[in-house]
Amino acid sequence: MIFPFNHITIQPFNHSANRLIYLLLFLLTSCANIVPPTGGPKDETPPKLVHSKPTDEQRNYRDNTLELEFDEYVNTNNLSTNWIVSPPLKYPVETKVKKKKFFITLKDTLLSNTTYRFQFENSIVDNTEKNPPDELTLTFSTGEIIDTGIVKGMISEVLSGNPVHGITVGLIPAKDSDTVHFVKKTPLFLTRSTKTGEFQLKNLPQGQFNVIAFDDKNKNYTCDISSERVAFTDSLISIRQDTIKLNLHLYKEDHLPPYILKSQADEKNKITLQFSEGVDSISLFQLNDSASSPVPFIPLYDGKNLVAFPTIEKDSVSLHVTAIDSSYNKMQDTLFIGVKPDAKKDSVPFVISVFPSNGTLIMNSNQIKFLFRVPVIGKTIPLLEFMVDSVKTILLNKEDEYAWNKYGNELSIKRNIPFTKNLRISIPDSMFSDVYGLKNRKEPFIYYKDNDAGYGALSGTVNTIWKNFTLDLLDDKGRVLRQLKNNHTFRFEWLKPGKYVFRLLEDRNNNERWDRGDIFKNILPEKIFYYKNIMPLKANWEIENIEVNVE
């Protein structure tokens, strides 16, 4: 039937039409993009533990399954590397997450009468923003007693004094180190340092332990001494009922001798050697047909490179090299270095430069150093003429008025010559002869008096039980400006306005250098102390009564 309505015709739907429209509606809705609501605050609330099996610090728990229930949905996050179990488990665990519950199945047979401590750290996170629970731990005992010993403290980098985050700290029972050095053992109790360098080992049994801390870059819970930094105590600790507090100093061991990376003849009588690391002591000998002779050389600024000056009369040279690094690792090698047939001798003339630069302001004459491009033969005590304020001449020709460095390329003035306006220095012609047989020409230098306006001073005392030490004055970039050896009072003068820092270095063996430790010889690194305050010094100021106190 058709119902007329103005000029519109309305006709009832049949079943086929109904199915067609439903199909069209389904296709339209299925093609639409469903976009979840956006906006709202970021979820920063970590999941909270609401129930666990066993309960925390439960006794006589011997089951091989653990269950943790949280107040929101959770998931795992690199469980094998992001949690710590003490004592360590021998076999990997099986885990399962079901909504808000986390299940652990242990494959190990739990030790009897032992307190276990699970530190979950970042191994469990929520499902939305990956927030880990706050310091989540679970402790239980397989026996009647929960162990209560605590070892806590700070771990810092020995050279900078800065706290170190994420360092594994462990205890190794003394009885486990009877035949194998403890550095090669896996600690029985473990934790990691926080962002502030703090660490805390809890629920420890009574007994004697070695203490070790290390980077654990490969997450094997054992110190790899060749590639990881280490800290330790040089004596056993005895855990009783009280809390033991420790300060550990992290450093890198060095047991590998240096070696030569590169050697080449740059010129006829000039050879460059490059070492694998900075070296402290070097000796070079040229091997001739029937004898050997020392070879003069100059180390370059980084300690890894040197320039040697042998006498080369053939197309090759043989050198015997001995080098010792800062950890007393020693290398010896014999080099056969070829020289190109067309190699020329160094043709640069004899040049003397000075520090401070010629024509600048100085306070005292003992600031002056003469610098030579190549070693000077014989380290002659020169006869130098000093013209004071253009009216008075002083001659320096005594041994105690000069100081050569051991390489023969730097000559320092030790005598302080008073002057008020200017100081002129005259070096006579042919006073010095270098390794190439060249001699200097007569050269004049002039300096002008720098008055004390605009400078400041720092003074105070050092209070320490250390028998031998070095006090360093550093600028705000960490550069050493002044040093004093075993002085319990100090006054640093003629300092430019700026920020200064004091550093005290222990010199336990009195060798006038800082030494790293040796864990195999039970030698700790020498201690380094940074004064807590940065000293802001202004022009014409003196900061007095500074107390550098080190226990």
Short characterization:
The protein has 551 residues and is mainly beta. The chain has 2 helices and 44 strands. The longest helix has 17 residues, at 15-31.
Distance between the termini: 110 Å
* Assigned CATH architecture of the largest domain: Sandwich
Query: Which outline best applies?
Result: elongated
CATH class of the largest domain, please?
A: Mainly Beta
Can you walk through the features of this model?
By secondary structure, the protein is mainly β. It is 4% helix and 43% strand. It folds into five domains: 93 residues, Immunoglobulin-like, CATH 2.60.40; 102 residues, Immunoglobulins (Immunoglobulin-like); 79 residues, Sandwich (Immunoglobulin-like); 98 residues, Immunoglobulin-like (Sandwich); 95 residues, Immunoglobulins (Immunoglobulin-like, Sandwich). β1 and β2 form a beta hairpin. The N terminus is likely disordered.
